[in-house]
Design brief:
The protein is mainly alpha-helical. The protein is built from six helices and no strands.
């Protein structure tokens, strides 16, 4: 039961990464707006980091059953821990950091960043199954 739940959570996380990658290709302006909004409200902050932390925990739980146990466990702990740290820091810091990057990343770069994002989504799904 837990293994199935972890599998589904990880696949949902991989699908989300895929959606982010496709958004970066199709509408880099929208991707920039999304980045700039990170940490701007508690709803966005929690909506970003609670699911992210849950995916990290699921990766740790599912790691022994994956095709890449150690990398998945390390990545899971990193995702979980970094989400907790970001949630503990002042939200204005997170938002200011997101806006800083959104203002500096050229729109063309969002399409370039889509490639590794989509590759990680596929790799995550593949190693999980």
């Amino acid at each position: 039961m837990i293994a199935t739940a972890a599998l589904l959570v990880i696949l949902a996380g991989a699908a989300w990464l895929g959606i982010v990658g496709i958004t970066c290709i199709v509408s880099p302006e929208r991707a920039r707006e999304g980045l700039a909004a990170m940490g701007s409200t508690w709803r966005i902050q929690l909506g970003e980091h609670i699911p992210r932390a849950i995916v990290g925990v699921a990766m740790v739980a599912h790691a022994p059953l994956s095709k890449a146990s150690l990398p998945m466990e390390i990545a899971g702990w990193f995702i979980f821990a970094s989400s907790v740290v970001i949630l503990l820091l002042p939200m204005r810091w997170h938002h200011a950091y997101a806006v800083w990057w959104a203002e500096r990343i050229p729109l063309a770069a969002y399409r370039i960043f889509a490639v590794p994002t989509l590759a990680i989504a596929v790799l995550l799904a593949y190693t999980t199954l």
